[in-house]
Amino acid sequence: MSALVTLNNGLKMPLVGLGCWKIPNKVCAEQVYDAIKLGYRLFDGATDYGNEVEVGQGIRRAIDEKIVTRADLFVVSKLWNSFHHPEHVKINVKRNLKDLGLDYLDLYYIHFPIAFKYVPIEEKYPPGFYSGVKEEAQGIIGTENVSLADTYHAMEALVDEGLIKSIGISNYNGGLVQDVLNYCKIKPVALQIEHHPYLTQPHLTEFCKLHQIQVVAYSSFGPQSYVELKSDVALETVPLFEHPTVKKIAVAHGSNITTSQVLLRWATQQGVAIIPKSSKKERLVANLKIDEALTLTDDELRQINDLNKNLRFNDPWDWMNMKFPIFA
Predict the structure, then answer these.
(1) Catalytic center residues
(2) DSSP class of 228
(3) What pTM did the predictor assign?
(4) Residue ranges, the chain, pLDDT below 50
(5) Domain definitions of the chain by residue range
(6) Contact, 174 vs 115, CB < 8 A?
(7) Domain 4-316's class?
(8) How far is Cα 249 from Cα 266, in angstroms, rounded to an integer?
(9) Which InterPro entries match (predicted)?
């Protein structure tokens, strides 16, 4: 297992987990099962990933074979934008639990601070950017007038009911995090953000540490996750795996250290949790044991921090014909 961090509600969460975004359905159950055998205990999923049935199958197989118990695992999912209305939040989490075959989630995030128009599960699930036939024909995303406070309070009700143990927020900027702290009854335990050397967000991460909110990084390898999505920005950006600074630091730590390990250790050494994915067992093991593999010097941390360009690859401003300026 990886090191554990203690969240502000007392739960212990692995610092390294398996991200389930873009794991193909046909191999997902096997990858989750194999990851559990290798020592993974945190699985970061979401409504929008469309593979929770398979994630649940992998978990169930490992539990049935007595490799782990449910209590050994830290299972994560995310409320999708189409279910922000307080009347719909529970609908989403109940479907998450049904697909995963679980009674509760350890952590449930609000995926984005954007409220889409509600789409009934029987019409399309997961709905993605779909918000109705009319909207689809117009090439737009339908939205609803729902405040983030109302959505958050509905999430708090899920804790009270025992459906989730912890609340998380994702893709929130600093102002929205501050706002949550003003109205919440149950404090969020984690903020998940795009975080890599091209987007270090030092003020946001420091603010979260001051308020005992664990920062969790997604897209730790920067543009790598978005090249296959044909992102122009990603395609035009020097891959972090090939950046001279990262390569130089990897070489300094020995021939067996890779640039990917340097990037992950840069995050964990600064107290940021990570959820990388891989289909290769040897890389899964390396990611899980990243804290044992190397320790970066203060100067090396500074060199990597200096690569920051405030370059974001996952920006709702670019979604279809809509303009959602949540990071403006």
Answers:
(1) 49
(2) T
(3) 0.97
(4) none
(5) 4-316
(6) no
(7) alpha beta
(8) 11
(9) AKR, Aldo/ket_reductase_CS, NAD(P)_OxRdtase_dom_sf, NADP_OxRdtase_dom
